[in-house]
Amino acid sequence: MIRKFISRVLKLGSAKTAAKPASAKGVKGAKNAPGKQQAAIIPRSSHGISRDQISSGSRRVCETLHSHGFKAYVVGGAVRDLLVGAKPKDFDVATDATPEEAKRCFRRSRIIGRRFQIVHAYMGQEIIEITTFRGALGNDAKTDAHGRVLHDNVFGSMAEDAARRDFTVNALYFDPATEQIHDYHHGVADLKQKTLRMIGEPKVRYREDPVRMLRAIRLAAKLGLTIDPEARHPIREMAELLENVPAARLFDEMLKLLTSGHAVKCLQQLRAEGLHHGVLPMLDVILEQPMGEKFVMLSLADTDERIRRGKTSSPSFLFATLLWHEVLGAWERIKSSGESSIPALHQAMEEVLNVQGEKLAITRRIAGDIKEIWALQPRFEQRSGKRPFGVLEHPRFRAAYDFLCLRAKAGELDEEIAQWWTDFQNAEGEGRSSMLMPDQGPKKKRRRRRKPRQDGEAAPSPSDDQE
Ligand code: ATP
Ligand code: MG
Question: Is 310 helix (H, G, I), strand (E, B) or coil?
């Protein structure tokens, strides 16, 4: 009743409805009979989105599918983002054509995925993901011991597809031909009320897929929505289910979260909900060390700023900053056990990446980049001889320099060093050479190394000042 009233106030009542808009009761009904309810059909005059606002690729994909007699809609995040005035990341299309049928409609397309196949259509520079409507999960759906759905490969009706989506604001279908939005779960009204509401029973939906807990936090932060209490409350007690999620999936979701442009807010929220444990096993430890917290928060604020200005942020940089204080801790420990500085740093890097890398499925390539960023840090402290030129030419210089600036900002390192590198990069020719510090003479060190060792004395470092 109340929701109907609100929807009328919001002028959604003027929508040409194919059936009654799903009321609060209707949504609950969906738990028992998923995919049985009908959609509210909201005209452009009410929602305000025109077909010009969707990408030309997704528009052409829908037109082509329509011309072959299929239904086709832009669905999910793109519609939701347009409704709140945000720029969609991508435009996905949902259709009643099977993957084979959809593929036949496009010259440049291919089927991907084994269990649940989707079609990628190449439209100029754009790749449009075309998904066939998914069917309701049967009682015989294959799950792991904790209830996480493993197989999900049934096609179904549009209404069933809507019921399978996670949040009401994600179950919106925009038809470019009519410019109408098909809204099965009152998503437009929820969006206007700034509420992120789960479709169906939140506990059941989290058990089916624990990643939805992370999605809830990310989407709420990104869109400025409040998670509906029914969906928020179970998160704390169900957080541990994230431990059973495959690492690669967790990595993807974590990356989305960190590059959402709202990472600081997301992290605060993850902490508030007790989710940081499951996601990055040591994140809570890092955040409890004042220096670690300062560094991570500064780094994420910096990333948010970059992303909001339309710049990119590399995953390696992000994870390098998140794990840095773990490395610092391990580095100190290994050094105090007698290892010399640089070998100790390399051991610490391996150790941290082994533990976190496994849980997060950090790829080899990313792990390689992360190590380079870390390994360059002590080299910034050498500002004599030819060494700074080598550092400047290092392929990972830019990222490592940004990392250095963050460390300085966090108070972990003398600002003067970061400033020196800023000036050194900007200087030219003679000016650059004149900045070099007097060489403290590796010869002197070598001489020291030749001294006979006393019993029990730690072996000198072969290159304490070099990588
Ligand atoms: P964004 O693209 O901004 O990260 P999104 O909501 O579009 O957010 P995608 O991963 O692109 O996220 O998913 C597209 C759509 O697929 C979602 O809007 C939602 O309808 C559905 N979806 C994605 N992940 C899930 C999930 N775990 N459970 C149910 N539905 C999902
Ligand atoms: Mg998306």
Answer: coil
Range 194-279 classified under CATH 1.10.110.30: yes
For residue 35 the two structure tokens come to 């995919």
Question: Radius of gyration over alpha carbons of the chain, in Å?
Answer: 27
Predicted local confidence at residue 249, as pLDDT: 85
Residue with tokens 């992290």: 267
Q: Would you list the DSSP string of 257-287?
A: HHTSS-HHHHHHHHHHTT-HHHHSTTHHHHH
Q: Please tell me what DSSP assigns to residue 377.
A: T
Q: Write down the catalytic residue from 81, 92, 96, 161.
A: 92
- Can you tell me which atom of ligand 1 is nearest the CA of 76? 18
Instruction: Respond yes or no: is residue 52 known to be catalytic.
Output: no
Q: Is 166 in the pocket of ligand 1 (CB under 6 A)?
A: yes
CA dihedral 120, 123, 126, 127 (to 10 degrees): 0
Nearest CA to 467 among 345, 384, 359, 368?
A: 345
Question: For residue 134, what pLDDT is reported?
Answer: 92
Q: CA 373, CA 395: separation in Å to the nearest integer? A: 10
CATH fold of 296-434: cca-adding enzyme, domain 2 (1.10.3090)
Coil vs helix vs strand at 223: helix
The rounded average pLDDT for each run of 10 residues, N- to C-terminus, in the chain (467 residues) is 41 34 35 66 97 97 98 97 93 97 97 88 96 84 77 85 96 98 97 97 95 95 95 93 84 85 89 72 64 84 89 86 89 95 95 79 87 96 85 92 93 92 87 76 48 40 32
Is pTM beyond 0.70? Reply is yes
pLDDT at 15: 36
Q: Looking at ligand 1, which residue's alpha carbon is closest to its atom 22?
A: 165
> How far away, in angstroms, is 223 Cα from ligand 2 center?
13
Any catalytic annotation for residue 190? Answer: no
The finding on whether 256 has its CB within 6 A of some atom of ligand 1 is yes
Ligand 1: residue of 54, 148, 165 to mutate (most ligand atoms within 8 A of CB) is 165
Q: What is the CATH number of domain 18-192?
A: 3.30.460.10
Which ligand approaches the C-alpha of residue 168 most closely? 1
Where do the structural domains in the chain lie, given as residue ranges?
18-192, 194-279, 296-434
- Indicate if ligand 1 lies below 6 Å from the C-beta of 126: no
Please give the distance, rounded to the nearest whole angstrom, from the Cα atom of residue 118 to the centre of ligand 1: 14
Instruction: Say if strands 72-75 and 118-123 run parallel, antiparallel, or are unpaired.
Output: unpaired
Q: 408: CA distance to ligand 1 center in Å?
A: 38
Is residue 304 among the annotated active site residues? no
d(CA 165, CA 204): 13
